[in-house]
Amino acid sequence: QVQLVESGGGLVQAGGSLRLSCAASGRTFSNYHMGWFRQAPGKEREFVAAISWSGARTAYADSVKGRFTISRDNAKNAVYLQMNSLKPEDTAVYYCAATAARGGLWPKTTPREYDYWGQGTQVTVSS
């Protein structure tokens, strides 16, 4: 089992920045690819960003490319999402997710490809 706990969400004005963190515990963190997803009210959970187990590969949704940056620190068992130039449409609950790095296609951008999930952190961007 992998336990994931997100933090760093909050209320920010449009154009502002937030940095989300996800702390992992339970298994060897470097054995897992990590992803960030978000879900707005009434909408399906959508892919935001992913990072490979080593950090060498990253992927982003088109809607956040150039504004968001995913990173990880395997020594600290943590993954981060730096969000800049935030827009009201970025408002959602943001979830951290983990999937075992056992090969297969990259990037992993659908929720069903991930095995473990955090409880989510709310991000609200006001206009």
Describe the model.
The strands form 2 sheets. Strands 2, 4, 5, 6, 9, 10 and 11 form a 7-stranded mixed sheet that branches. This protein is 0% helix and 50% strand. The chain is mainly β and 127 residues long.
Largest beta-sheet details: 7 strands, mixed
Beginning-to-end CA distance, first to last residue: 40 Å
Query: How many alpha or pi helices?
Result: 0
Question: Which class best fits the helix and strand makeup?
Answer: mainly beta
Beta-sheet strand percentage? over 45%
The whole-number mean of residue pLDDT values reads 96
Q: Could you name the ranges where pLDDT drops below 50 across 5 or more consecutive residues?
A: none
Radius of gyration: 14 Å
How many distinct beta strands?
A: 11
List the secondary-structure elements in sequence, H or E.
Answer: EEEEEEEEEEE
Portion of residues within helices = under 10%
Coarse shape: globular
SSE blueprint:
Elements: E1 3-7, E2 10-13, E3 18-25, E4 32-39, E5 46-51, E6 58-60, E7 68-73, E8 78-83, E9 92-100, E10 116-117, E11 121-126
What's this, in brief?
The chain has strands at 3-7, 10-13, 18-25, 32-39, 46-51, 58-60, 68-73, 78-83, 92-100, 116-117, 121-126. It is mostly beta strands. A hairpin with a 4-residue loop joins β7 and β8.
Keywords:
127 residues, mainly beta, 4-stranded antiparallel sheet, 11 strands, 0% helix, 50% strand, globular
